[in-house]
């Protein structure tokens, strides 16, 4: 589409609606949305990087016949009534897995889903951000600039509300266009399986030892330093939770790693470190020093190991040394999936998850057939359309390797 055909969308067609902030206004909004027709566009704004956790601070909805509704989920923290009123209605989200957890916290869980980002991936669009998709598919440009704002701000500025309303302005129209493309490409049933799988997925289990994801932790070489990282991370998490502030604003990862490298012995040594000279790190300097001291003085038996024991295959770069046959299977399997993904114009990870390919290659079925490979893929969470496309060619590739090794 040429630039001349692209139309800037600067204002919601019906103007910026008032924010729903009271029980009566919420009930009116629910009745209005229930009386509308067709799918409901849904979006949520969080305050990532500003507040602790991922709660929603604004929920936007739009439906034909009802217009756009902006709900403040701070005073209106229970949207289960909206879920009941919209039972069975398809909800349209972009990158649904990002917003579904915070929507579930306030009682809004779709019965049916259409994810416009995932639809774009299955159709092979190279860039699937909402603004790019709306421009590419519908020919409109959306206002940008407030996605990373502190949405816990009250009152919300008018230009932020305009941005939020525009995020759902064309979402149903985008859904309609992408659904037609999926249908034409023979991928609609694939997409429907993917959407259903998103809704059926259980809540994510808390990550084991989340402190191990501290940025820069790879620089540490001793278990003692890892203990300091762990204690500082846990102390920071407690402070951040109590203050309802993003952990990175309380104490940056760089400060945690610097303290673990230097192992300061006195409070002055700690606050003299460059990463601890700012106002926020110094505000809780006594807390940080106690955490460092705890990590420095733990018995050796309580120090964390360098890494957690893996429950899956080892890192792929070690396969050639540990199991050359498995490394060959992985190379062949990846080639099969890449070729099929290219044939069907989609990213390889949407055709088959990389971890699924690794696990199949590391532990293939004892007798390799299309059926046995399909059973493994299904057990690993692959959808029926993925199994249908990949089980047979993967089985052929694995059989060829097995036959080759036997000769």
Automatic annotation (TrEMBL):
Listed SUPFAM superfamilies: HRDC-like, Ribonuclease H-like
HRDC domain boundaries: 222-302
InterPro entries named among the record's database cross-references: 3'-5'_exonuclease_dom (IPR002562), Exo_C (IPR041605), HRDC-like_sf (IPR010997), HRDC_dom (IPR002121), HRDC_dom_sf (IPR044876), RNase_D-like (IPR051086), RNaseH-like_sf (IPR012337), RNaseH_sf (IPR036397)
Pfam family, one: DNA_pol_A_exoN
GO aspect biological process, one term: nucleobase-containing compound metabolic process
GO MF annotation terms: 3'-5' exonuclease activity; nucleic acid binding; nucleotide binding
CDD domains per UniProt: RNaseD_exo (cd06142)
PANTHER family: RIBONUCLEASE D
Protein name (Swiss-Prot/TrEMBL): Ribonuclease D
């Amino acid at each position: 589409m040429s630039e001349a055909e692209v139309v800037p969308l600067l204002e919601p067609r019906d103007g910026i609606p008032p924010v729903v902030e009271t029980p009566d206004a919420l009930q009116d909004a629910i009745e209005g949305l229930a009386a509308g027709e067709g799918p409901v566009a849904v979006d949520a704004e969080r305050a990532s990087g500003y507040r602790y956790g991922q709660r929603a601070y604004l929920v936007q909805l739009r439906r034909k016949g009802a217009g756009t509704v902006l709900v403040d989920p701070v005073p209106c923290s229970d949207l289960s009534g909206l879920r009941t009123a919209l039972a069975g209605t398809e909800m349209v989200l972009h990158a649904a897995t990002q917003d579904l957890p915070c929507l579930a916290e306030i009682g809004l869980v779709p019965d049916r889903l259409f994810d416009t980002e995932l639809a774009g991936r299955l159709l092979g669009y190279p860039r699937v951000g909402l603004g790019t998709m709306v421009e590419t598919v519908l020919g409109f440009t959306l206002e940008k600039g407030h996605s990373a704002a502190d949405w816990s701000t009250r009152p919300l500025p008018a230009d932020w509300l305009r941005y939020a309303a525009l995020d759902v302005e064309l979402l149903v129209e985008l859904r309609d266009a992408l659904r037609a493309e999926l249908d034409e490409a023979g991928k609609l049933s694939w997409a429907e399986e993917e959407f259903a799988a998103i809704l059926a997925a259980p809540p994510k289990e808390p990550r084991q030892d989340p402190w191990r994801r501290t940025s820069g932790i790879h620089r540490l070489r001793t278990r003692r330093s890892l203990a300091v990282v762990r204690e500082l991370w846990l102390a920071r998490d407690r402070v951040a939770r109590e203050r309802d502030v993003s952990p990175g604003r309380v104490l940056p990862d760089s400060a945690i790693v610097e303290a673990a490298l230097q192992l300061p012995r006195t409070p002055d040594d700690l606050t003299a470190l460059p990463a601890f000279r700012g106002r926020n790190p110094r505000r809780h300097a006594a807390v940080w020093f106690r955490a460092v001291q705890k990590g420095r003085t733990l018995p050796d038996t309580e120090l964390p190991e360098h890494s957690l024991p893996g429950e899956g295959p080892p890192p792929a770069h070690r396969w050639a040394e540990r199991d050359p046959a498995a490394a060959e299977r992985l190379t062949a399997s990846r080639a099969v999936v890449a070729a099929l993904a290219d044939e069907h114009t989609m990213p390889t990870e949407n055709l088959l998850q990389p971890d699924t390919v690794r696990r199949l290659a590391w532990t293939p079925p004892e007798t390799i057939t299309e059926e046995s490979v399909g059973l493994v893929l299904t057990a690993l969470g692959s959808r029926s359309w993925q199994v249908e496309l990949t089980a047979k060619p993967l089985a052929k590739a694995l059989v060829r390797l097995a036959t080759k090794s036997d000769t």
